[in-house]
Design a protein that fits this description.
It contains 15 helices and six strands. With 318 residues, the chain is an alpha/beta fold. It starts with 8 loop residues before the first strand and ends with a strand. InterPro entries: NST/OST, P-loop_NTPase, Sulfotransferase_dom. Keywords: Glycoprotein, Transferase.
C-alpha cells in the first residue's frame, strides 16, 4: 500500500457525473482513508473561479472573527469529540482554525493511514497554472475524471441547483433564464472535457489519468469501481467488502448518490445544448469510441466514424 506521498489520488470531476457515488464507495473500501469533507475546493479557492470559494480567506485570524464561522468550526470539532471520532476532530480543527497553504493542505492527509485522496469536481475547471500547483504537492498522484454526456450533465446540474429551492417548479422559470445558466462561465468550463484533459495531461503524465464513465454506474458498477481502485492502488484486492451479502452489493453499489430532481428539458434548451456540445462529443467518439460513441448515437441519432462499440467502464488517454 502506498505511503510515501501524502496524497495518492484526486477526483477532478466532472460535476454531476458520479463523483458523489465514487466518494461514497471509496469511503467504504478497505485500505482507503477518505477525509470527511468530500469537496475541499483548495486549488480552486481563488475567487476568479465560478465555484465555492470558502477557502479564499487564507488567514485563520481573518476567518474566526466571523461568529457564524467560529460557531460552525467549534460545532464540527465538538460533535466529533463527543462521538469519540478523534481523527475527525483533528481534521476539523485543522480545517477551521489554521492558515491555508500547501503544507496545511498536505497535513490534512497526514492524520490518516492508507490510500488517501479527495474529490473536488471543480478541479476540472483549473487553469494549467493551478494544475501545476497540484503537481507540486503530489506529482505521483493518480487522477480520476468521471465523465457524463455533457448534454445530460448540464441539464442535471440545472436540476440539482434548483432542487434546493423549496417548491420549485419549472413553470416559474423563463426559458431565457435556463439558457443563460447553460451559457454561464461555470457551465462552459465544467463541460469542456477536452480542455480539462489537455490541461492535466500537459502537466501530469498521461498514464496518471483515468477516465471513468457515469453510464457504467448503472451498466457495470462493480467493474467500474474495481478498475478505479486498481488504478489508484493495485494492492487493493476488491471494491466490495466480503462481509456484504450479494444483495447488499447489488443494491448499494448501483445507488446514484446526490441525485437531481426529475424534470424534462425544454426542447429549445435541449437543441441549444446539442449544438453546443456536438463537436466535442463527435471528436471524442471518433477518437475513443465506446461510451463516447454511445453518447453520440443517443444524442444525434447516428454513429461516429469510430465503430468501437464495446463499453469499457474506464479508459486511458492516448
Amino acid at each position: 500500500m502506498k505511503t510515501e506521498t501524502p496524497i495518492n489520488f484526486w477526483g477532478i470531476g466532472a460535476q454531476k457525473a458520479g463523483t458523489s457515488w465514487l466518494y461514497y464507495n471509496l469511503s467504504k473500501t478497505p485500505g482507503f482513508a477518505i477525509p470527511p469533507v468530500k469537496e475541499f475546493h483548495y486549488f480552486d479557492r481563488d475567487v476568479s473561479y465560478p465555484s465555492p470559494n470558502y477557502l479564499s480567506i487564507t488567514k485563520a485570524k481573518d476567518r474566526i472573527g466571523d461568529m457564524s464561522y467560529l460557531f460552525k468550526g467549534v460545532k464540527s470539532v465538538s460533535a466529533a469529540v463527543l462521538r469519540g471520532q478523534m481523527k475527525k476532530a483533528r481534521f476539523y480543527t485543522k480545517w477551521h482554525f489554521l492558515d491555508y497553504n500547501d503544507e496545511w493542505y498536505k497535513s490534512l492527509f497526514d492524520i490518516y493511514e492508507g490510500v488517501k485522496g479527495e474529490i473536488t469536481p471543480a478541479y476540472s475547471m483549473l487553469s494549467k497554472e493551478d494544475v501545476s500547483r497540484m503537481y507540486a504537492v503530489a506529482p505521483e498522484a493518480k487522477l480520476i475524471f468521471m465523465l457524463r454526456n455533457p448534454v445530460d450533465r448540464a441539464w442535471s446540474n440545472f436540476r440539482h441547483v434548483k432542487k434546493r429551492i423549496k417548491g420549485f417548479s419549472l413553470d416559474d422559470v423563463e426559458e431565457k433564464e435556463i439558457i443563460a445558466f447553460m451559457q454561464s462561465e461555470g457551465q462552459e468550463l465544467r463541460s469542456n472535457y477536452a480542455r480539462t484533459i489537455e490541461n492535466f495531461t500537459s502537466v501530469f503524465p498521461k498514464e496518471q489519468l483515468l477516465i471513468g464513465f457515469y453510464d457504467a454506474i448503472i451498466d457495470n458498477p462493480k467493474r467500474l469501481l474495481d478498475e478505479v481502485i486498481q488504478f489508484i492502488d493495485p494492492s487493493t484486492e476488491s471494491s466490495i467488502n466480503e462481509k456484504q451479502s450479494e444483495d447488499d452489493k447489488d443494491s448499494s453499489i448501483k445507488k446514484v448518490v446526490n441525485k437531481s430532481i426529475e424534470l424534462d428539458c425544454p426542447p429549445k434548451v435541449l437543441e441549444i445544448l446539442k449544438e453546443k456540445y456536438h463537436d466535442m462529443i463527435f471528436d471524442l467518439a471518433n477518437q475513443y469510441g465506446g461510451y463516447f460513441n454511445k453518447w453520440y448515437i443517443e444524442t444525434y441519432g447516428k454513429p461516429s466514424n469510430n465503430h468501437e462499440d464495446r463499453l469499457f467502464p474506464t479508459i486511458h488517454i492516448d
